[in-house]
From TrEMBL:
Entry's family note: Belongs to the ParA family.
Pfam families documented for this protein: AAA_31 (PF13614)
Keyword Acyltransferase included in the entry's annotation: no
UniProt organism field: Cyanobacterium aponinum (strain PCC 10605)
UniProt protein name: Chromosome segregation ATPase
């Protein structure tokens, strides 16, 4: 079975990419899938959420991209593997500028380990720089978290233009895995309108999933370094994560 390499990407910051990556990864692992989470954001939120202190790392994704092509993988954290990172990854933006075949670097790094995993989830940085391009080049699918604020959704056009360029120039097989409305508050009419607009405009590109509710439980669970399903199993967002995971299981069928 082909490995699904899914980039979680939005050029806007603060939409919940790292939280979504960890919780979807855990939902897939509970369905007996072998999952690698790859932190490609120099802010290293995913690394921190998974219980690893970024500043204590000697070898990270940075080293694989610019030197060794060999990932440092931490095994079996809540049933997941993690390729961690830290602020050193920000140097890769500059160091890869003149590198030959730079767009393919992450794809080359992942190629030897593809047989080890059913899913590789890439937590992308909130920018349209070289790191995001590396992720979109290596990915088989793109999953887009979008905050249900009009201002955040308004920037989706730029994201879609970027994806079109990636398809045209380096990865013609990149498909949408879907769109995940984030930080949704059903009491706010703007959120309801934005969600309806997402469904109307984006469904032709991919599934628009049930929204992830806005809740203080997410910062609480990440502070405890736990997926939500372990921190508060009965929270309604757990079902949403499981439903998205079920959809991702169908990508290669």
């Amino acid at each position: 079975m082909k490995t699904n390499v899914i980039a979680l990407f939005n050029q806007a910051g603060g939409v919940g990419k790292s939280t979504l990556t960890m919780n979807l990864g855990y939902a897939l692992a509970k369905k007996k899938k072998k999952v690698l989470l790859l932190d490609l954001d120099p802010q290293a939120s995913l690394t921190t959420f998974m219980g690893i202190e970024p500043h204590e790392l000697d070898i990270t994704v940075y080293d694989a991209l610019v030197e060794t092509f060999h990932l440092n993988i931490k095994n079996k954290i809540h049933g997941l593997d993690l390729a961690p990172t830290n602020i050193n990854l920000s140097l890769a933006e500059m160091e890869l500028v003149s590198a030959l075949n730079r767009e393919q670097r992450l794809k080359q790094v992942l190629f030897p380990i593809l047989p080890n995993y059913d899913f590789i989830l890439i937590d992308c940085p909130p920018s349209l720089g070289i790191l995001s391009i590396l992720a979109l080049t290596a990915a088989t699918h793109l999953l887009v978290p979008i905050e249900t604020e009009f201002k955040s959704y308004f920037g989706t056009g730029l994201l879609l233009d970027t994806v079109a360029r990636i398809r045209r120039h380096v990865n013609p097989d990149l498909d949408f895995a879907g769109f995940v409305p984030m930080k949704f508050d059903k009491r706010r009419s703007q959120h309801l309108r934005t969600y309806e607009q997402m469904k109307e405009e984006l469904t032709k590109l991919g599934t628009v999933f049930t929204p992830i509710p806005d809740s203080t439980v997410f910062p609480d669970s990440t502070e405890e370094r736990l997926p939500l399903a372990l921190y508060k199993p009965k929270h309604p967002a757990v079902k949403v994560f499981n439903d998205i995971a079920k959809h991702l299981l169908q990508l290669n069928k």
